[in-house]
Amino acid sequence: MAVPVPEKTNTYHPVSNGDLVSFVKMRVKDVLGLEIKSEEYGLSRKDMQMFSVMTLDTGNKENGLSIGLRNSYDLSLSVGVASGAKTFVCDNLCFSGDAMVMLRKHTLNVWKDIRVNVDKALHSSEMHYEEMNRQLEAMKHVPLRLDAGFELIGRALGHDILKPQQATIAIKDWKKPRYEEFSERNVYSMYNCFTEALKKGPAGGTLSRHTKAHGFFTPMLPAAPATFALLGGDV
Q1: How far apart are CA 219 and CA 77, in angstroms?
Q2: What are phi and psi of 163, to 5 degrees?
């Protein structure tokens, strides 16, 4: 809220970070009736990009329902919101592209569209959260050998899912998991290596990084046998 909001022009109508966050917090309580358990905020590109995540208390001991927001003051990002899960043991975020809503570019009537689309995103958030938990649980049942994990990280590096510095973090966590909960060799543990690595990077790109990574993993689930077989079956 301390970052100055740019001046409005005929074609550019900035959305205040503070106003956006306050509005979403109000609608979370009105639409979902859930309490906000924690809030986090990040700035990047000389404070011109903002990312925020609100974690809601759903009673799930493993994962909380998270609402992610993004905004910019330099026209680099449209206003966006996504729903997903936050793993409590490691404080990692999980967002899928299906739950990502681009609210609006910063043009005339931007707030009118934000009001409509925030409610739309929140109404669908519980459905996306349940699907996310189902996918995370399914990942626990897909084995992944040590060397296959290295190959997967290399593939992610080649497809720009991970940057070199992030890939180094993922490899380190795959060799020696920092959390006991991810010591098993399976896709779920590897997914955690990725989400841990993706903490490294500009705050404004957090949603994009996580949605892109999640899309990289979902074809590996048993529901997608063709890709699963391509990865080697019992990978």
Answers
A1: 28
A2: -85, 165
**Rounded to a whole number, what is the distance in angstroms from the first to the last CA of the chain?**
47
Enumerate the β-bridge partners of residue 30. Answer: none
Bridge partners of residue 71, in order along the sequence: 50
Residue 145 confidence (pLDDT): 96
Tokens of 90: 């490691």
The CB-side HSE value for 52 (13 A sphere, CA atoms) comes to: 22
Q: pLDDT tier at 98 (50, 70, 90 boundaries)? A: confident
Strands of the chain, DSSP E: 36-44, 49-56, 63-72, 79-87, 92-104
Q: Using alpha carbons, select from 43, 3, 28, 26 the residue that is nearest to residue 83.
A: 28
- 162, 120 in Cβ contact below 8 A? no
Judged by average pLDDT, the poorest of 18-22, 115-119, 146-150, 187-191 is 115-119
Q: Bridge partners of 53?
A: 40, 68
The alpha carbons of the chain give a radius of gyration, in whole angstroms, of 18
* Confidence band for 223, pLDDT divided at 50, 70 and 90: low
User: Domain boundaries in the chain?
Assistant: 17-133, 146-230
Q: How far apart are CA 174 and CA 152, in angstroms?
A: 11
Rounded distance between C-alpha atoms, residue 30 and residue 85, angstroms: 20
